[in-house]
Specification:
CATH topology of the largest domain in chain B: Rossmann fold
Number of domains of chain B: 2
Strand order of the largest sheet of chain B: 6-7-8-3-9-10
Bound molecules: adenosine-5'-triphosphate, magnesium ion
CATH class of the largest domain in chain B: Alpha Beta
Family (chain A): Belongs to the binding-protein-dependent transport system permease family. LivHM subfamily.
Organism (chain A): Paragemmobacter kunshanensis
GO cellular component, one term (chain A): plasma membrane
Structural class of chain A: mainly alpha
Strand content of chain B: 25-35%
Membrane topology (chain A): Multi-pass membrane protein
Number of helices of chain B: 8
Order of helices and strands of chain A: HHHHEEHHHHHHH
CATH architecture of the largest domain in chain B: 3-Layer(aba) Sandwich
Helix content of chain B: 25-40%
Radius of gyration of chain A: 19 Å
Helix content of chain A: over 70%
CATH superfamily of the largest domain in chain B: P-loop containing nucleotide triphosphate hydrolases
Strand order of the largest sheet of chain A: 1-2
Shape of chain A: globular
InterPro entries (chain A): ABC_transp_permease, BCAA_transport_permease
Distance between the termini of chain A: 52 Å
Strand content of chain A: under 5%
Number of strands of chain B: 10
Oligomer: heterodimer
Structural class of chain B: alpha/beta
Largest sheet of chain B: 6 strands, mixed
């Protein structure tokens, strides 16, 4: 295989990383943007999505495509429900105090991890992909499933964008993000908005996880890497800027994938972390965030 | 109409309002004057439920507003134009109005009426609110509140920092609303404006009502202005 096709293969692999990273990071960014909550447990919602997908596909059985579709529909809903509950039981009671919510979500991280260890176990287990054929390119065959992951992630992101910009519920979320008190003065139940945003953020991470789990297997510690990468993405993209988050996810996902493919995954993480440090020093508002004072 | 009885409120342990009693009647403009820090804005927030009442009651046509969560208050027909406008800055003019319309499920008719009052807003529906001029922002803040078709309108220093022509426009709108029966509570610092608009003037000091006078009993050199506003 020549260098050109090799690069193409690497790009396609990285695009899968970028696509799922974009979903995860947009979830984190939404939660931070609207609620000002730094959700350290975000990676665990990702993990829960994957584990739930494993349980659902095994419980339902039937043809792989059907089991997978059910997992894709139900796992994010289940994770979103857990997140809404966590918001009501914990974050709301802390009055969304920034420091307190960081500590609380660190606690949640361990609760979810230990719960997964207890009920799911320490092993990594795969979920069967919904379909298994390869698309034959002139130079190599490529998994059609991986391509569909990129496509689905893009569709979900467009859906989120349409929801936020075109729907009444999205308008209510954006108003709450700007000014919670004034939103209440216009009849908006901001407690409900917060619960919905936290659920939506967690649900997006769960969708990313369901998409990735036929490729990467479910494991109770799998939330670490997505959390780190999502944080890096949100900071580089500009806190609370969804457009910036998506662009940063593509940049970071692609470069992370390429570096990991040609050199080593560790080098990729080192460079990404270095990038965050540079951004924080030279452009603290993020590459695409508006400068606020 | 709107009755406030023995109201006390504050921020955490700090008391700001003390045993405040006040009434706003339909088709009347009640002006509130007082020095900086007297508690005028706190009173407005307290009516909206944004600052909880620690004592006393706020009732609108028999409904106990003080026991409702903040987001349930505007549904009863109380609209609020906060001090400093507090627009949803990154949202467009149309979206800001939409938020107001959604509060009480008002439709295009209401929206058209509001835009007829402020034609400048109609030309700028797709403009981002934060990029409007100060006067246009104030029109939008008032327009957004009028989208509720309110029974009670709270205006907290709506003419702060505006030029005379804009102030005159806002005065006309407030007078027109009065004719439709709206009970208006207007926080205003300038005696000349108050004398033009008010039916009654409430002077606040140290978080309570220090004096309440009918418009007819006040002249530009009334001692209350000197005593409670310092002009
Ligand atoms: N969010 C807050 N937290 C704590 N104290 C507050 C808060 N908002 C206002 N205060 C205090 O409450 C008191 C009354 O403030 P308020 O804003 O009601 O005054 P005001 O009469 O509207 O003054 P101004 O004419 O300057 O608008 C002040 O002493 C102020 O410092
Ligand atoms: Mg004030």
């Amino acid at each position: 295989m020549g260098f050109g096709p090799f690069l193409l293969l690497a790009l396609m692999e990285s695009a899968v990383t970028a696509a799922t990273l974009a979903l995860t990071a947009v979830g984190l960014s939404l939660v931070f943007g609207v609620m000002r909550v730094v959700n350290v447990a975000h990676g665990e919602f990702f993990m829960l999505g994957a584990v739930a997908a494993w349980f659902i596909t095994n419980f339902i059985g039937g043809p792989p495509w059907f089991a997978f579709l059910m997992a894709l529909a139900l796992a994010p809903l289940a994770v979103a429900a857990i997140a809404a509950l966590a918001d009501r039981l914990i974050l709301k009671r802390l009055d969304y105090e920034p420091e307190a919510t960081i500590v609380a979500t660190i606690g949640l991280l361990y609760i979810f991890q230990q719960a997964a260890l207890s009920f799911y176990g320490p092993q990594a287990m795969p979920v069967e992909p919904p379909f298994n054929f390869r698309i034959q390119l002139p130079w190599f065959g490529y998994s059609a499933y991986k391509l569909s992951v990129i496509l689905l992630a893009a569709l979900v992101l467009i859906g989120v964008w349409l929801f936020l910009t075109r729907s009444k519920a999205g308008l209510v979320m954006r108003a709450t993000q700007v000014d919670r008190e004034t939103a209440q003065a216009f009849g908006i139940d901001t407690d409900r908005v917060y619960a919905a945003v936290f659920a939506l953020g967690a649900g997006l991470a769960a969708i990313a996880a369901v998409l990735i789990v036929p490729i990467a297997q479910a494991h109770y510690l799998m939330g670490h890497d997505p959390l780190l990468l999502a944080f890096i993405t949100v900071i580089v993209g500009g806190l609370g800027s969804l457009r910036g988050t998506v662009i940063a996810a593509i940049l970071i996902g692609l470069s992370d994938g390429l570096i990991a493919f040609f050199w080593s995954p560790t080098l990729a993480k080192i460079l990404a972390t270095l990038l965050v440090a540079m951004v924080l020093v030279f452009r603290p508002q993020g590459l695409f965030g508006a400068r606020t004072t | 109409m709107l009755r406030i009885d023995g109201l006390s409120a504050g921020y955490g342990p700090v008391g700001v309002l003390h045993d405040l009693t006040l009434e706003a009647r339909a088709a009347q403009i009640t002006c509130i004057m007082g020095r900086n820090g007297a508690g005028k804005s706190t009173l407005m927030k307290c009516i909206m439920g944004l600052v909880p009442a620690s004592r006393g009651s706020i009732t609108l046509d028999g409904v106990a507003l003080h026991s409702l969560p903040a987001h349930r208050v505007p549904g009863h027909g109380v609209a609020y134009v906060p001090q400093g406008r507090r627009l949803f800055g990154p949202l467009t003019v149309a979206e800001n109005l939409q938020i107001g319309l959604m509060t009480r499920n008002m439709g295009d008719e209401t929206r058209d009426r509001v835009l007829d009052l402020f034609p400048r807003l109609r030309e700028r529906l797709d403009q981002v609110a934060a990029t409007l001029s100060g006067g246009e922002q104030q029109m939008l803040a008032i327009g957004r509140a009028l989208c509720l078709e309110p029974k009670v309108l709270l205006l907290d220093e709506p003419t702060e920092g505006l030029q005379p022509s804009m102030i005159a426009l806002i005065r006309d709108v407030v007078l027109r609303l009065k004719e439709t029966g709206v009970a208006t509570i207007l926080v205003e610092q300038r005696p000349d404006a108050v004398l033009q608009l008010a039916d009654r003037v409430v002077f606040m000091a140290n978080g309570t009502v220090a004096d309440c006078s009918e418009r007819a009993d006040l002249s530009p050199d009334a001692p209350q202005f000197m005593a409670y506003v310092g002009v």
